[in-house]
């Protein structure tokens, strides 16, 4: 008789919450990166230690404005707003997120292939990469709602069948992110511990969770322990900055009650050696626009000149 392997990152399986140590590397470090690209040793060490790296003013002002205009075009497009990929705020018709932007927009597709970004993802994950998910997140002035604390990997592991912690997010800041308009907040070091969450996940949970997540969120005691250990870093930075953060880093953001909108583009890079299997507990696979399954083909990087030709 063959005994199924125990899931070392089991979550939502029963009513018990808990914290287990990470078993996977943070930096895999076996991919070849061209000289002069990727992170330097100090930056890579900071990412490995804290679970994120903030690179200010990565894109020029002109490049950032070009990307921002493209996101604004998508959000204004009535055809896009009618698509399932467009998620509105709870109780409002204001767009909260637009998913699969690397497919809906040629320009944002090239952004996801930008050699500078892909090189960093390959360097950290130690392999070729593909896009697991992409989205534009927006927080309109006065009414942009919060994103509660969570680890992306917990959701991707349970609801998408992602095997290991070998994925990361890259957030491109298209507007100034400061303490007043709901910037990304992270718990440094939290990526080294996995929080097993409480609750049995309903089928098609994504229809509710993309507006407000109720399953796959940490319990208060576990969250308190992580914050007591690592504190909270508020990632205020000017437009054009980027953040890379590990798939298991605990993060969230406050609501935006300022007059100033906040918009960022996220690309989730996953290792081609970490492709999705079946979701846990007999859950239906989430739609392609949330979790890529049709093709795990490696990204073919493009040179940054694509932004200058627009």
Structural summary, described in words:
This protein has helices at residues 41-50, 61-76, 78-81, 101-104, 106-113, 115-125, 152-160, 206-209, 220-230; strands spanning 18-21, 52-55, 86-88, 95-99, 129-139, 147-150, 167-173, 184-186, 193-196, 233-234, 242-246, 251-253, 262-271. A hairpin with a 6-residue loop joins strand 3 and strand 4. 25% of the residues lie in helices and 21% in strands. The termini are far apart. The longest helix is centred in the N-terminal third of the chain and has 16 residues, at 61-76. It has 310 residues and is an alpha+beta fold.
SSE blueprint:
Layout: E1 18-21, H1 41-50, E2 52-55, H2 61-76, H3 78-81, E3 86-88, E4 95-99, H4 101-104, H5 106-113, H6 115-125, E5 129-139, E6 147-150, H7 152-160, E7 167-173, E8 184-186, E9 193-196, H8 206-209, H9 220-230, E10 233-234, E11 242-246, E12 251-253, E13 262-271
Short summary of the structure?
The protein has 310 residues and is α+β, with helices and mostly antiparallel strands.
Keywords:
7-stranded antiparallel beta sheet; about 300 residues; 4-stranded antiparallel beta sheet; 9 helices; alpha+beta; globular; about 20% strand
The total count of strands amounts to 13
Shape: globular
**Strand percentage, roughly?**
15-25%
Radius of gyration over all CA atoms, rounded: 18 Å
Distance linking N and C termini: 61 Å
> How many DSSP H or I helices?
9
* Range of helix content: 10-25%
Structural class: alpha+beta
């Amino acid at each position: 008789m063959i005994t199924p392997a125990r899931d070392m990152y089991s979550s939502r399986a029963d009513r018990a919450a808990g914290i287990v140590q990470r078993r996977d590397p943070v930096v895999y470090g076996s991919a070849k990166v061209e000289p002069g690209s990727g992170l330097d040793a100090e930056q890579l060490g900071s990412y490995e230690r804290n679970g994120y790296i903030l690179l200010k003013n990565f894109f020029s002002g002109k490049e950032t404005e070009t990307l921002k205009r493209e996101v604004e075009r998508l959000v204004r497009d009535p055809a896009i707003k009618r698509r399932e990929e467009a998620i509105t705020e709870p109780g409002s018709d204001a767009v909260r997120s637009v998913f699969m932007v690397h497919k809906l927009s040629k320009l944002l597709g090239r952004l996801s292939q930008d050699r500078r970004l892909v090189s960093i993802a390959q360097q950290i994950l130690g392999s070729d990469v593909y896009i697991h998910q992409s989205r534009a997140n927006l927080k309109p002035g006065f009414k942009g709602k919060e994103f509660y604390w969570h680890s992306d990997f917990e959701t991707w592991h349970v609801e998408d069948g992602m095997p290991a912690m070998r994925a990361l997010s890259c957030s491109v800041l298209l507007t100034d992110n400061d303490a007043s308009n709901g910037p990304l907040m992270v718990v440094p070091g939290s990526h080294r511990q996995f929080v097993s969450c409480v609750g049995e996940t309903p089928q098609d949970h994504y229809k509710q969770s993309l507006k407000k997540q109720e399953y796959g969120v940490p319990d208060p005691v576990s969250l308190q322990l992580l914050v007591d250990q690592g504190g909270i870093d508020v990632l205020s930075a000017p437009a054009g900055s980027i953040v890379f953060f590990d798939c298991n880093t605990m993060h969230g953001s406050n609501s935006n009650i300022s007059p100033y909108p906040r918009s960022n583009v996220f690309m989730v890079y996953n290792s081609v050696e970490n492709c999705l299997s079946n979701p846990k507990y007999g859950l239906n696979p989430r739609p392609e626009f949330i979790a890529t399954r049709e093709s795990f083909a490696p990204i073919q990087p493009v040179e940054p000149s694509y932004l200058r030709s627009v």
